[in-house]
């Protein structure tokens, strides 16, 4: 398949607008935003705030998937890093807490990268190991309890606000900007796409595929650590059993909705974040409309199937033979 | 296909290693706890892990064919809720409900297999959608745990073959042993089984050989989901209730059991018997923890993760050795 420029993502943005419009119909005050105590409040802000952890995870996941990999362990890594941050928060200063949690996330990511790049294990299997063991490690750190803390500095990361926006939203935007700068500001993004498209050809062309794979998994672990810190700071505690549970699936879904193919190759960071917002807007919409939250999973499944069918090579062939004959 | 070696001895090496790990583990447990080495403990091991064993056999088929099925845990959950509601609220006779749910889950698997095959989608993401769908459907039916009070359930719970030493071979354990035996026959002695190995080795060559790849793929996922349905029946017998949150994460335990059992996750190689031993090893870890009493249950997850790593490392090493010896043989032929 020839390397194409990333699509503009009209369909994703239309989908997000449509879901927001439905939310508005269901709950007319959906777009109401008010300023209170120097912080913005409203359903729309809530969508951004609640969507932040998945959006951050998807920033790491999209690069991994673009390399034809997958990282199933991000939910468990979130639990580990949240547990570390929560158990250190009241006895150590904030920089130490953050360094410890981020370091742990980076180490987890590099471990996955080592298994994939150096030992040559399939990504699903390699990250499955940490997905299974990670939650056990997190419980080991919290000793099976729900660790709570009262450090106001750490709580600020989850519940505070910067310039009126909730801190998680600001962190997400900053991280998106940073990732765009690193990946698209250099040839790195192109190298990642080349490796995902054809790893052998990329290596023969002189790209250090092994090092890039290692770095990308490390970055994914780092993103998971940030999401884990936010999740722990949000509830002022770490719950090793439930922190980040099933979020790896949401992150993969966000990336897929964002138009990045699971077969690797071209990717879009911005659209992955839009994908995360679509998921969260659906969740919020279902809550606002008064449907039982249980319908959430069914709606999600229908969305996955719709996106999959839209991406399916066979349907694409059908579509182009029907509509593309004039070209 | 025959990547692990040319002769049958080295072909069986991974299964032998798994069995050795189980025997050594059992020996350690027996030396640590004086009452451990009894028929009763072994029979409880079979009963407690019956549902996992059944679903892991289906997973073995899927993984050998080069696919993966993430939906099985949700299908088990759906089955327990469906049975509870059908029997308790709709008044369907239990045996009829069993037959109904087996048909429903088989059709569910067939639909997933067809989606994978016709739309050329990765099995991982299709069965992920199936996982959401089945779990969501069970949430929609009921979010509460519903006890099942049908006579058949209490009757089946009492049914068991009594063995010396107070041990009982229960109905769930018998069902698992039957599925394992049936799975071995189906995989190793039939044309369908041979096709599954071929499919995992190379899809293209299999299609060129004249095997109906579409029908085989649909059949594999149908089988996996139907076994998940059966596993759900066994699970509801075991707990006498239906709950939409039951069997969350069982797909991971099943995949872990398959890998520990020596099956290659890239497909084309594996044994049902290895999976059976893999399930027993996971059960053994749980039993060790409950015998010890002071160890926390999270150690089970860490131990399973370590075992997974050890076995995957072992697989990579044998694969590397096989490739090297093949290269050497090829070089020697010149």
From TrEMBL, chain A:
CDD domains: TM_PBP1_transp_AraH_like. It is a multi-pass membrane protein. The keyword Transmembrane applies. It comes from the Bacteria. Signal peptide: none annotated. The keyword Transcription does not apply. Keywords: Cell membrane, Membrane, Transmembrane, Transmembrane helix. It comes from Ancylobacter oerskovii. It is found in: Cell membrane. This is ABC transporter permease. The chain crosses the membrane at residues 12-31, 51-70, 77-102, 114-134, 146-163, 169-190, 211-233, 245-263, 270-291.
TrEMBL record, chain B:
Keywords: Cell membrane, Membrane, Transmembrane, Transmembrane helix. InterPro entries: ABC_transp_permease (IPR001851). It comes from the Bacteria. The chain crosses the membrane at residues 12-33, 45-64, 70-88, 95-116, 122-141, 169-189, 218-240, 252-285, 297-317. It is found in: Cell membrane. Its main location: membrane. It is a multi-pass membrane protein. PANTHER family: ABC TRANSPORTER PERMEASE PROTEIN YPHD-RELATED-RELATED (PTHR32196), INNER MEMBRANE ABC TRANSPORTER PERMEASE PROTEIN YJFF (PTHR32196:SF63). This is Galactofuranose ABC transporter, permease protein YjfF. It comes from Ancylobacter oerskovii. The gene is yjfF.
């Amino acid at each position: 398949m020839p390397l194409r420029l990333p699509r503009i993502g009209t369909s994703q943005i239309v989908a997000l607008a449509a879901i927001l419009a439905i939310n508005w119909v269901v709950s007319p005050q959906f777009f109401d935003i008010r300023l209170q105590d120097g912080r913005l409040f409203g359903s729309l802000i809530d969508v951004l705030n609640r969507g932040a952890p998945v959006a951050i995870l998807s920033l790491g996941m999209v690069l991994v998937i673009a390399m034809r990999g997958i990282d199933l362990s991000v939910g468990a890594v979130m639990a580990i890093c949240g547990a570390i941050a929560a158990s250190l928060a009241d006895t150590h200063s904030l920089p130490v807490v953050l360094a410890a949690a981020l370091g742990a996330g980076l180490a987890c990511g590099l471990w996955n990268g080592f298994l994939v790049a150096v030992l040559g294990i399939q990504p699903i299997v390699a990250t499955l190991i940490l997905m299974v063991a990670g939650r056990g490690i997190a419980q080991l750190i919290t000793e099976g309890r729900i660790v709570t803390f009262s450090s106001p500095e750490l709580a600020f990361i989850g519940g505070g606000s910067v310039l009126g926006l909730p801190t998680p939203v600001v962190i997400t935007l900053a991280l998106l900007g940073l990732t765009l700068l690193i990946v698209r500001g250099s040839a790195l993004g192109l190298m990642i796409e080349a490796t995902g498209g054809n790893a052998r050809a990329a290596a023969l062309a002189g790209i250090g595929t092994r090092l890039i794979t290692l770095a990308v998994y490390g970055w994914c672990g780092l993103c998971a650590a940030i999401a884990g810190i936010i999740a722990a700071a949000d509830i002022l505690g770490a719950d090793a059993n439930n922190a980040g549970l099933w979020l790896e699936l949401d992150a993969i879904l966000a990336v897929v909705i964002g138009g990045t193919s699971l077969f690797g190759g071209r990717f879009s960071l911005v659209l992955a974040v839009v994908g995360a917002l679509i998921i969260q807007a659906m969740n919020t919409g279902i809550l606002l409309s008064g449907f039982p939250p249980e319908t959430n999973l069914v709606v999600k499944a229908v969305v996955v199937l719709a996106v999959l069918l839209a991406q399916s090579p066979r349907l694409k062939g059908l579509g182009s033979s029907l509509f593309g004959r004039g070209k | 296909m025959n990547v692990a070696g040319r002769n049958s001895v080295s072909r069986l090496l991974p299964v032998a290693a798994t069995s050795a790990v189980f025997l050594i583990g059992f020996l350690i447990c027996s030396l640590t706890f004086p009452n451990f080495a009894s028929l009763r403990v072994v029979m409880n091991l079979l009963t407690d892990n019956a549902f996992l064993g059944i679903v892991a056999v289906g997973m073995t088929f899927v993984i050998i064919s080069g696919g993966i099925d993430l939906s099985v845990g949700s299908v088990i959950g759906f089955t327990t809720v469906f049975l509870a509601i059908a029997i308790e609220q709709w008044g369907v006779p239990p045996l009829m409900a069993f037959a109904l749910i087996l048909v429903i889950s088989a059709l569910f698997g067939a639909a997933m297999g067809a989606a994978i095959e016709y739309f050329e989608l990765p099995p991982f993401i299709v069965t992920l959608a199936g996982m959401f769908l089945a779990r969501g459907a069970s949430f929609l039916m009921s979010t509460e745990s519903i006890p099942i009070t049908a006579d058949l359930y209490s009757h089946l719970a009492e049914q068991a073959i009594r063995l010396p030493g107070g041990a009982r071979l229960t109905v769930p354990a018998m069902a698992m042993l039957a599925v394992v035996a049936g799975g071995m026959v189906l995989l190793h002695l039939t044309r369908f089984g041979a096709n599954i190995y071929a499919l995992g080795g190379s899809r293209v060559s299999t299609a060129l050989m004249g095997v109906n790849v579409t029908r085989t793929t649909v059949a594999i996922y149908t089988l996996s989901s139907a076994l998940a349905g059966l596993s759900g029946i066994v699970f509801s017998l075991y707990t006498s209730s239906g709950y939409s949150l039951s069997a969350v994460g069982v797909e991971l335990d099943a995949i872990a059991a398959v890998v520990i059992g020596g099956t290659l996750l890239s497909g084309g190689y594996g044994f049902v018997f290895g999976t059976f031993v893999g399930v027993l090893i996971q059960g053994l870890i749980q039993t060790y923890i409950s015998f010890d009493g002071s160890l926390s249950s999270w150690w089970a997850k860490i131990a399973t993760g370590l075992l997974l790593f050890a076995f995957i490392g072992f697989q990579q090493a044998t694969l590397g050795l096989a490739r090297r010896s093949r290269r050497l043989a090829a070089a020697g032929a010149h």
